[in-house]
Design goal:
The chain contains 12 helices and 17 strands. The chain is of the alpha/beta class. The chain binds flavin-adenine dinucleotide (FAD) and uridine-5'-diphosphate.
Length: 371
């Protein structure tokens, strides 16, 4: 089989690159070892007719106009602002921590003028912010750290926050107002017909062929491609020659409640200190679907299983760099995406990285960059 470009992985990264190269006039073959497109952002109706995200809740948000505009070619949108409560000592309180979180937990009556004074009275300033522990202790001190971050992080990563880069906990800010949205990005919308429909539209191009249920490592001898774009785990590409690059996995437990219209008041409830799972998400909040029943997912973090998260810590970064040095030698292969670049990318960042990679791919193929 012959193609100009072989793309391994039909998630955000692979699909964006595929579309861009197809528009540039290349014949593109996209393969995925799964039986569906969309990667981890894939969604589908469950047997009860509720649109679910089989690989965990995916909420789209971005500050980049260019990325929102890019995707708007392939989908209409439905406004949705995600809200999360955390269960702490039998109370359900907003996370990120805001004025109402502090007031509810400590029986106080703080407002915009007094909240920073409270944080200043409990925070333990750290000179160097290296780890996730430093981030939280520096912002809100030991008690709020224990209540919201330590247990959750240990469950999620199998590591103490002191063993993870600062950027992990820094994803969740501390608020000095009453904003209870999980994200503050200016564009917060969900694809109106779901992610899979958006991917179908992105991949619907006469120069794109998609083959599903195909593993690259079994298939690669059978295809002749001028260039390969690989979006799977980087260590697997090199047969784990330097050892396994750690990726954190999850087990998802889905549940449908036929006689319950709404299970929880917000999209996601976090459980920092109870249960083996980290959070429960009720999909109808995210999708706006109406149904007399409801469908939920609970996330159980695991060390083994499909790779979902790179694990941001210095020793893993070093191992990644060794693999990256091999990757940089490849003239005919480009590595793109959350797994291949070993970056804790959100969906919009994957789109951004994929768009950026196209110029680089064209250059490697001896072409000029896209207009
Ligand atoms: P993936 O989606 O992982 O796609 C890679 C594809 O490559 C996969 O489909 C895989 O099957 C395929 N592949 C791998 N190896 C091979 C092989 N050997 N042969 C063939 N195919 C192969 N981001 C947000 O912005 N908002 C959120 O709310 C959000 N929530 C998330 C929740 C969870 C639980 C997780 C895990 C991630 C979440 N993300 C979220 C991040 C988001 O999923 C990623 O940024 C994005 O989907 C990554 O896209 P990708 O194409 O790089 O990788
Ligand atoms: N986190 C936490 N408690 C929370 C929410 C987040 O300790 O209630 C920490 C945890 O380490 C988590 C990280 O912050 O992995 C990033 O959270 P986010 O919700 O962005 O994770 P994701 O949605 O990517 O799984």
């Amino acid at each position: 089989m012959k193609t100009d470009v072989l793309i391994v992985g039909a998630g955000f990264s692979g699909s964006v690159v595929a579309r861009q190269l197809a528009e540039r006039g290349y014949e593109v073959l996209v393969i995925d070892k799964r039986e569906h497109i969309g990667g981890n952002a894939y969604d589908r109706k469950d047997q009860h007719g509720i649109l679910i995200h089989p690989y965990g809740p995916h909420i789209f948000h971005t500050n980049a106009d260019r990325i929102a505009e890019y995707l708007t070619q392939f989908t209409a949108w439905r406004p949705y602002e995600h809200r999360v409560l955390a269960k702490v000592e039998e109370k359900f309180v907003p996370i990120p921590i805001n004025i109402d979180t502090v007031n509810a937990l400590y029986g106080m009556d703080l407002d915009e003028t007094t909240i920073q004074g409270f944080y200043d009275s409990v925070r333990e300033p750290r000179e160097k912010i290296r780890t996730s522990e430093d981030v939280v202790i520096n912002a809100v001190g030991q008690d709020l750290y224990e209540k919201f971050f330590r247990g959750y992080t240990q469950k999620q990563w199998g590591l103490d926050p002191s063993e993870l880069n600062a950027a992990v906990a820094a994803r969740v800010p501390t608020r000095t107002d009453r904003d209870d949205r999980y994200f503050t990005d200016k564009f917060q919308k969900m694809p109106a017909q779901g992610y899979t429909k958006m991917f179908e539209s992105m991949l619907d191009h006469p120069s794109i062929k998609v083959e599903l249920g195909v593993d690259y490592f079994e298939f690669r001898e059978r295809v002749e491609a001028t260039h390969t774009v690989y979006t799977g785990p980087l260590d697997a590409f090199y047969a784990y020659c330097y050892g396994k690059l750690p990726y954190r996995s999850l087990r998802f437990e889905h549940e449908h409640l036929a006689d319950t219209e709404w299970y929880q008041s917000v999209g996601t409830v976090n459980f920092p200190n109870d249960y083996e799972y980290t959070r429960t998400t009720e999909f109808k909040h995210l999708t706006g679907q109406q149904h007399s029943g409801t469908s939920l997912v609970r996330e159980f973090p695991t060390a083994e299983g499909d790779p979902y998260y790179p694990v941001p810590r210095p020793e893993n970064e070093l191992l990644f760099k060794r693999y990256e040095a091999l990757a940089e030698q490849e003239q005919d292969v480009t590595f793109v995406g959350r797994l291949a670049q070993y970056r804790y990318y959100n969906m919009d960042q994957c789109v951004g990285a994929a768009l950026k990679s196209v110029d680089y791919i064209l250059e490697k193929m001896g072409e000029t960059s896209m207009p």
